[in-house]
C-alpha cells in the first residue's frame, strides 16, 4: 500500500526549496520540449469537428450552470451529437492561441482551461459508443486541429469500460467516455519533481469545465478517479509510464432534449 505520510509531500509546494532551486530542469539545459500533442500518423482517419459554437446552450447563464451542476450517473439510451461533442472537447482542452518559439519553451498553447506554465500535459481519449454519425471506437482529440483521430475499434466496449472503471456500470452505458491521459514529461521538462502536483491540479480544471459545459447542454457527467489503472491504460493502449490516465468522465444525455 502507499505510504500516506510520504504522499502528503506531493500535496505541498516545494518551489522555494534549495534542492529544487539547485537542480537544473531539462528546459534549463536547453533540451527540446516534447511536442504539444502526440503525433498523428500520416494514414490516420481524421474527423473534422464542427465549430465549438455550432450548438446553442439550452441552459443559459454561467450562474445557472454552476448552481445546477451535480454528478449525473443515469443516462438515457440516446446518442449525443457531433456538435455537442465538439463543444465539450473545446470547453475542456480547446486551443485559443498558439505561440511558436515562446520564450525558450518551443510551441505553447493557451486553452479554455488554465495549466501550470501552460504545459497542458494531457491527451484526451474518447471511447465513443453513441455519437451521431461516428463509428464506435477509441479516438483521440487533436486540440491543435480540433478534430477526432480514429485509433481503433474495440469489441464489447461497454463491458470493458465498466470493468476498467472498477465496476461503475454507468461508465459502460454512456454514449461517450472522456479519458485524460497525462504525458508527465510535458510538466517535468519545466518543473521537474514539482510538476506532478501541478499536473493533477490541472486535471481538476479540465473536468470542471466538462461538468459546466455538459450542464449547459443538459447533458450529464461525473468525474471518476476510482478506476483500474492497468485496465484503463490497456484499453487505450497506453504504456503506463510515459502516458497514463489520471481522470475520466462518462457523458450522457439525461433528458430527451434533442
Ligand atoms: C476527484 C474526484 C473523483 C471522483 N471519483 C468518482 C468516482 O470514481 N465515482 C463516482 O461515482 N463519483 C466520483 N466522483 C464524484 C463525487 O462523488 C461527487 O462529486 C460528490 O459526491 C459530490 O456530488 P456532486 O458532484 O453531485 O456535487 C469524484 C469526484 C471527484 C472530484
Give a verbal description of the structure.
There is one protein chain. With 258 residues, this protein is of the alpha+beta class. The chain has one domain (45-253): NADH Oxidase. 31% of the residues lie in helices and 20% in strands. It has nine helices and nine strands. It has a seven-stranded antiparallel beta sheet, sandwiched between helices. The protein has a two-stranded antiparallel ribbon with strand order 2-3. A hairpin with an 8-residue loop joins strand 2 (95-99) and strand 3 (108-111). The chain is globular. Flavin mononucleotide (FMN) is lined by residues 70-71, 73, 168, 222-226. The site of flavin mononucleotide (FMN) has 9 residues, from loops.
**What is the strand arrangement across the widest sheet?**
1-6-5-4-7-9-8
CATH class designation: Alpha Beta
Structural class: alpha+beta
Global shape: globular
Low-confidence stretches: none
Q: Helix tally?
A: 9
- The chain-level mean pLDDT equals 95
Q: What is the CATH third-level topology name?
A: NADH Oxidase
Q: What is the CA-atom radius of gyration, in angstroms?
A: 19 Å
Ligands (ions, cofactors included) = flavin mononucleotide
How much of the sequence lies in strands comes to 15-25%
Q: Kindly give the count of domains.
A: 1
CATH superfamily (homologous) name: NADH Oxidase
What is the share of helical residues? 25-40%
Terminal CA distance? 47 Å
Instruction: Give the biggest sheet.
Output: 7 strands, antiparallel
Query: How many strands in all?
Result: 9
Q: List the helices and strands in order.
A: HHEHHEEEEEHHEHHEHE
Report the CATH architecture: 3-Layer(aba) Sandwich
